[in-house]
Specification:
By secondary structure, the protein is α/β, with parallel strands linked by helices. The protein is built from 16 helices and twelve strands. The protein has three domains: 2-104, 2-Layer Sandwich (Gyrase A, domain 2), CATH 3.30.1360; 123-204 and 377-436, Four Helix Bundle (Hemerythrin (Met), subunit A), CATH 1.20.120.430; 211-368, P-loop containing nucleotide triphosphate hydrolases (Rossmann fold). The protein starts with a strand and ends in a 7-residue tail after the last helix.
Length: 443
């Protein structure tokens, strides 16, 4: 089938680009323009007509990419027209009348590029990450993965395992032949190198996933301490309802922020207190769940009520900042024991020391986002396959030591398969759907 779709954002725009890919791409261009396809990779001005009536739809640029030298590896065309909804709809309707043409599914162009060997699976994922990047650090990470260092490293480790596997299978095929000692040592050495490399990759403090998904900050504390007001202040908008009535916030309210180029998701949660209300109790349970997931906790309390419950005390760990609000109501000084905690004294209504709080948040972000060229894991999928690979390699080592070569070989095959599934060098049909469904239509 030949696929087509709008590849630029939906809505009114100056220019819209419609992609067409497949064996009928040249037929589509000839039908729309009444002329042969233009010279490859040259912008050519053409009148674009309705296929049935020859009525002019628009005048635009056609760029022709004959396969396999195209993004998808197939014959492909890009039609650049004015970005009005009626123009796009008319062209889509016209293309749909060409035999064997249909609207593309989300990510189908990039899926074709992967299936036709134009890109590996990691690069496909990095393209999706680049499209959705909202901050500079997310863009930089996506570009690093696109350059191929991660894929090269995983392929290098996989080649080592394949080399080791060939030696093991030689022993299985020729059981009467003794494996020379130098080959046995090489098998052990290669296995140890891959195990240490994977352990180092996994020991990354989840920085890659945090950059991609966003640094999670949970605002927690008792009712009426000013949690929602703090969320609104940091968001610079009324994201949450603020009321003097205790327990106003029942659900988790999230807002996405860009703080100095770092992606941040801030969650305002239900006030933590003893409650008999079932809905509020569920909200409090959600609050504690968010606390567990958070990279940083802002524990907001009222300066007039600094008696912490056991729950709040448990939340005040190394990944927490105690935010003492309503400092304008403070008479005298705060308790010396509380001063020992990582805290900041603020007043949201009077805008006092908010800059100090933001500075503390930024410092925490910088410490968490220690990036380097060694970041190779950006998705849970990568981590899961690496963990499975490591598990099979350790099993392989145990069986190899007792010369149970048949079973050892199977563990090595499984370890190799899991590495291959990261970059897509083995059959990965079961995971392609979940990856490419994250793309927008037209990409």
């Amino acid at each position: 089938m030949t696929i087509y779709a709008l590849s630029t954002g939906p809505g009114v725009s100056g220019v819209a680009i419609i992609r067409v890919s497949g064996v009928e791409a040249s037929t589509v261009i000839k039908s729309l323009t009444g002329r042969d396809t233009p010279k490859p990779r040259m912008a050519t001005l053409r009148k674009i007509n309705n296929i049935n009536t020859s009525e002019l739809i628009d005048e635009g640029i056609i760029i022709w990419f004959p396969g396999p030298e195209s993004y998808t590896g197939e014959d492909m065309a890009e039609i650049q027209v004015h970005g009005g909804r009626a123009v796009i709809e008319a062209i889509h309707n016209a293309i749909s009348k060409v035999k064997n043409c249909r609207l593309a599914e989300p990510g189908e162009f990039t899926k074709l590029a992967f299936q036709n060997g134009k890109i590996n699976l990691l690069k496909a994922e990095s393209i999706a990450d680049l499209i959705s990047a909202e901050t500079e650090i997310q863009r930089q990470q996506a570009i690093k993965i696109m350059k191929g260092k991660s894929a090269n490293q995983f392929n290098f480790l996989r080649e080592k395992l394949l080399k080791t596997l060939s030696s093991i299978e030689a022993k299985i095929d020729f059981p009467d032949e003794d494996i020379p000692n130098d080959i046995l040592k090489e098998i052990k050495k290669n296995s140890d190198v891959v195990i240490k490399s994977i352990e180092k990759i996994l020991d990354d403090q989840n920085v890659g996933e945090t950059i991609r998904e966003g640094f999670k900050i949970a605002i927690l504390g008792p009712t009426n301490a000013g949690k929602s007001s703090l969320l609104n202040h940091l968001s610079n908008r009324d994201a949450a309802i603020v009321s003097e009535t205790a327990g106003t916030t029942r659900d988790v309210i999230e807002t996405h922020l860009n703080i100095d180029g770092y992606p941040v998701i801030i969650s305002d949660t239900a006030g933590i207190r003893e409650s008999k209300n079932e809905i509020e109790k569920k909200g409090i349970k959600l609050s504690l769940s968010k606390a567990e997931e958070a990279d940083l906790k802002l524990i907001v309390v009222d300066v007039k009520n600094l008696h912490f419950t056991d729950v709040l005390n448990d939340l005040l760990d190394e990944n927490a900042i105690l935010v003492i609000n309503k400092s304008d109501l403070l008479d005298g000084d705060i308790n010396p024991e509380i001063k020992k905690l990582n805290h900041v004294l603020i007043s949201i209504t009077k805008n006092v020391n908010i800059d100090e709080l933001i500075s503390k948040i930024k410092n925490n972000l910088k410490n968490k986002f220690i990036t380097s060229d060694d970041i190779l894991i950006t998705r849970e999928r990568h981590r899961r396959h690496l963990q499975k690979c490591l598990e099979h390699l350790k099993n392989f080592d145990k069986k190899n030591e007792v010369e149970d070569f048949d079973k050892a070989a199977e563990d090595l095959r499984l370890a190799t398969r899991h590495l291959g599934m990261i970059v897509g060098t083995v059959d990965v049909e079961e995971i392609l759907g979940s990856i490419f469904n994250d793309f927008c239509i037209g990409k």
